[in-house]
Amino acid sequence: MIKLSIDGREVEVEPGTTVLEAAATLGIDIPHYCYHPDIGVDGNCRICLVEVNGNTDKLAIGCKFPCGEGMEVETESEAVVKARKGVMEFLLINHPLDCTICDQAGECPLQDYSYHYGTGDSRFAEKKRNKPKHVEFSEKVMFDAERCILCTRCTRFFEEVRDCRPIGVENMGGKSTITTGPNGPIQDPYQMNIIDICPVGALTSRDFRFKQRVWFMDFADTVCPGCSKGCNITAGSYQGKLLRFVPRRNTEVNASWMCDDGRLSYDKYNMPERVRGASVSGDPASFDAARAKITELVGDGQGVAVLASTSQTSEELFAVREWARTARVRDLWHGERTWESDDFLKQADATPNTAGAQALGYASVPSQAPELRGLIVVGDVDVPPALLANLDFLIQQAPQAGELGEAAVVLLPGRNALEKNGHWTNGDGAVQEVRAARDPGPDVPEDWTIWRDLAGVSWTSIAEITKAMGAVSTADAEAVTAS
Amino acid sequence: MNEFFAEYPLVFTMATTLAKIVLFTHIGLILAAYMPWVERKVSAWMQDRVGPNRVGYAGLGQPIADALKFIFKEDPVPGHVDKVLFTLAPALTVIPAILVLAVVPFAPAVSLFGQTAQMAIADLSVGILFVFAFSSLAVYGITLAGWASNSKYPLIGGVRSAAQMVSYELCLGLSVVGVFMAAQTLRLTDIVELQVDGYWNMFTQPIGFLVFVIAAFAETNRLPFDLPEAETELVAGYHTEYGSMKFAMFFAGEYMAMFVFSCLVAVLFMGGWDVPFMSNESFAALGNWGAALGFVAFLTKVLLFLFFYVWVRFTIPRFKFDQLMHLGWKVLIPLSLLNILWAGLWNMPS
Amino acid sequence: MAKVVDRRKLNFWEELYLPAIASGMKRTFAQMFKPAITLQYPEQRPEIFDDYRGAPGLVRDQDGREKCVSCQLCEYICPPRAIVIVPGEAPDQPDYDYSEIEKAPKEFYIDMLRCIYCGYCEEICPEQAIFMTDLYELNAGSRQELVHDKAKLYDVGGLRVDAIQKWKDKNASPGSEERKNVPPSGNPGDGAH
Ligand code: SF4
Ligand code: SF4
Ligand code: SF4
Ligand code: SF4
Question: What whole-number distance in Å separates Cα of residue A121 and Cα of residue A117?
Fold first, then answer.
């Protein structure tokens, strides 16, 4: 272990730790553009300069400088601030005054550091460089060369994380810029991550472009429902409408990344058309009436099975199981849905909580399904057609009814994956907290309350169910924003 | 004619009484209708403004336009009110004010067709008691309005009104005791006639006069004592929930009350129909012309006092509630007691 | 800490209040004979000063160009949240002088029932696209009509001739006619970029 002091505060770190990382453990933020915790050090932007052992002649770059025994580091000394001001002035010489039309504004480190180290004025009376401003890197990514500060995070992402080189730096000196290679537009299915890591507004999402200012949006830290990887995300919405997903750093699960398919899936959770309120035999009914009908239909539970979606949180599945126990329904099955997996994040299981469902005793639908009198479908799930033959009754509780809805005797509303609270267990067994990113509006109660009332239990919050389920270990690792 | 009425004096009495009712109440009502106009004009002058000037000459058509507006406006009755009392309350403020007019002597007696007619609708021997009995009823209207509205500001207004009326009723009653002591009668005509021959009570009993005037302001809920409707704190006080004609009735009630109290001040303290340097004989000598002169003199005094009402309103700011109570109980009541003592000494049989 | 204010002890006459009331009455009475200073509004109009703050409106520049780039700063600063902007992409016109702007409001609403005429929107606008006009008569038969939409706002704002044309100057070469309009640095925020 190495002992050093940063800004007069003692800290002990492993050998090989950089000054920037050591400072982060103390909560000291050393500004940086080109360094990114998940793609490593490059050292080209020079904004992270720090003063080591009082050496003001030659400042060190914090992102690369390893900690040494007894070192004394100053992160905001006079010399450091002066140097950073110089770096900022150079960066801003040719930077366009685009904040008014730039999607990065509001979450732009260049803006943030300008407040700290900018001068508010420019000594540069000459004409700024003009560079191409809307270059389509692909149908998902737009590039603005004027805003680019050539930190090369984007090229290094492809090289180090994706092992390919669809883009690179072209030309030299003042003319250098990022460009796509001879193979044309970027093809990589993880390409949109460069939008997040680009510290400025040079790379923007063509999907989210100009949709809304980030400072007007609401954000919820939750988990991507796309597959059993369970990438941590921050879901952004404006007035209840989801506008984007961006990955949230979790070194245990997804580092700082997520796949483009998951990222672009946000719109389907806005669900303008959905089940609202309960209905019995196609007619709107009160929840009381619906519950009475369910109890009547299920009877002694013989020949009745539950088929639950693995997009339901473990708490919701637990509530269903609790009801099934009181109603003596013995067959608890979970649905299955797959998509094409790949070698990076995407898993074949396209639902987020299969492991959680199995841990609660839900089984796959047996290939030789027993004779069924009734089926209870919970959540957004694909029902094998074989199960639907010879049914007396079908009960459905789901955000959207789909084709089944017409056949359902009792139809109850449900919340979709972005409207839930609770926990999901991903394919690797990590239990992660899920938080609602939007409110579905009237007549869509939380799923667990429906089953709680049916089971006659007295839980008042989802936290109580979590407790009832037993110690759920939250591997919801430190939510470091990917920057 | 003369013989007919000599034979049936009752017919004469009935005819003249009817005529007097029509005449006097209309004087009251018309004045009540035009007082807001006067008030708006005078306040405008005092504030370097122009005042109503759009409807008719100098805005004289304004009261008519306002009345039409009140009549044609939707009459809202909020769902949460006590319907019966809510409707009754406005009437309860107007009716007592009009009733009090019955005992006010407007002029010396008139002789017609060989008969004499007193120029008060009913020249009761207990005139002043009648006045107090009815004018205090007005508080019911306001308090009921506050209560029936079933919302907070009207209620506060109503409660304030009740407290204020009770306190100032006392000063009002005590301040006129001196007048009876001097006149040794309760009949208003007699009180006036005594002043015509002697001095006006406002000179012989200045303290009583002052207390009466202040109490009259409080009784009519006029600034500086308009706490029951204090716009700045209570929205509109007891009539917050009222609109259209019901509101107009509160409005009319307030101005009727002002008119009535102006009449009372004139009768009790300012010599009624007296003109300086005239005696009862000289009025009698002029015959019906004397009555007409008296009537004009009386109306002039009333109008002057009404102007005074307006003048005060736009000069003196509203009291706080504690100041109001302090003034009523700790200043005016002792003063009116002092006035009684003074009146006793003044009229001591020598 | 409570601060004790020493009040002057009133003398007997002051305590009575009557002299004060009398002098007040005298004052109001005298005032009745002074001339009125009222403006007879619909016929006579008040003089509108240059920095008057009437209804905010969006302006076009001398080329008839939409200046607002829907940066939404005015929406952010507006104290009563009267402004709602639906941002959008400007139509793509490669040959156009201003093709770099890319962004333009799809819709722009100001709820004039909410607006408090503070002028913050004008002050904060980085594009000088929104101005307080001298329009002070706003009336309508419904609340909806008083929510000014983009068309109405351009109606209200009209045209404004600018000395500095930021986006146009940006592409002009140094020393050219257009560049001469740009003041040298030292005037931050005024085009010295
Ligand atoms: S990248 Fe940042 S500083 Fe540059 S225009 Fe965009 S928001 Fe402004
Ligand atoms: S596009 Fe963004 S990430 Fe790539 S080099 Fe430029 S600033 Fe860096
Ligand atoms: S008016 Fe100005 S501040 Fe408002 S969005 Fe447009 S450019 Fe931005
Ligand atoms: S003037 Fe003020 S209140 Fe009105 S729109 Fe502009 S910022 Fe909002």
Answer: 12
Residues facing residue C105 across a β-bridge: C87
Chains in contact with chain C (at least 3 beta-carbon pairs closer than 8 A): A, B
For the record, the structure tokens of B267 come out as 């009768």
Q: Based on the fold, state whether residues A215 and A147 are members of the same structural domain.
A: yes
| Domain-embedded: residue A466 | yes
CATH code of the domain containing A44: 3.10.20.740
Residue A155: strand pairing partners: none
Is there a domain that residue A57 lies in? yes
Question: What total of structural domains would you count in chain A?
Answer: 3
**Are the C-beta atoms of residues A178 and A148 closer than 8 Å to each other?**
yes
Where in the sequence is the domain holding A393, given as residue range(s)?
278-482
Those residues whose C-beta lies under 8 Å from the C-beta of residue A40, and which sit 6 or more positions away, are A156, A160
For residues B186 and B188, give the distance between their C-alpha atoms in angstroms, rounded to a whole number. Answer: 6
Q: Using CB atoms, which residue from A96, A100, A122 is nearest to C185?
A: A122
Q: How many CA atoms lie within 13 A of A245 on its CB side?
A: 29
Asked if residue A100 is part of any domain, the answer here is no
What gap in Å lies between CA C91 and CA A230, rounded to an integer? 39
Q: How many Cβ pairs closer than 8 A exist between chain A and C?
A: 63
**B11-21 confidence digits (pLDDT tens):** 888 888 888 88
**Helix, strand, coil fractions of chain A, as percent rounded to 5:** 25, 20, 55
Is A120 a domain residue?
no
Say which residue the tokens 């009537």 belong to: B295
Instruction: Give the list of residues 6+ apart from residue A132 with CB closer than 8 angstroms, or none.
Output: A144, A145, A177
Interatomic CA distance for residues A58 and A52, integer angstroms: 9
Q: Do B315 and C32 touch (CB under 8 A)?
A: no
Is the CB–ligand 3 distance for residue C101 below 6 Å? no
**CB burial string C75-100: b at 16+ within 10 A, e below:** bbebeeebbbbebeebeeeeeebbbb
Contact A152, A160 (CB under 8 A): no
Per-residue pLDDT of chain A (483 residues; tens, 9 = 90+): 899 999 999 999 999 999 999 999 999 999 999 999 999 899 999 999 999 998 888 999 999 999 999 999 999 999 999 999 999 999 998 898 889 999 999 999 999 999 888 887 888 888 888 888 889 999 999 999 999 999 999 999 999 999 999 999 999 888 899 999 888 999 999 999 999 999 999 999 999 999 999 999 999 999 999 999 999 999 999 999 999 999 999 999 999 999 999 999 999 999 999 999 999 998 999 999 999 999 999 988 889 999 999 999 999 999 999 999 999 998 999 999 999 999 999 999 999 999 999 999 999 998 887 888 999 999 999 998 888 888 899 999 999 988 888 889 999 999 999 999 999 999 999 999 999 999 998 899 999 999 999 998 889 999 999 888 874 434 333 333 333
The ligand placed nearest to the CA atom of residue C53 is 4
| Structural domains of chain C, with CATH | 56-157 (3.30.70.3270)
Mutational pocket test of ligand 1: of A147, A153, A203, A213, the residue with most ligand atoms within 8 Å of the beta carbon: A147
Question: Looking up tokens 């068309």, which residue turns up?
Answer: C151
Give tens-digit pLDDT for A263-315. Answer: 999 999 999 999 999 999 989 999 999 999 999 999 888 899 999 999 999 99
Domain of residue A425, CATH code: 3.40.50.740
Q: Which of A398, A405, A357 is nearest to A381 (CA)?
A: A398
Residues 6+ apart with CB under 8 A from A276: A413, A441, A442, A443, A444
What is d(CA B333, CA B327) in angstroms, rounded to the nearest whole number?
A: 9
Q: String of b and e for C111-120 (b: at least 16 CB within 10 Å)?
A: bbeebeebbb
As a whole number of angstroms, the distance between CA A256 and CA A259 comes to 11
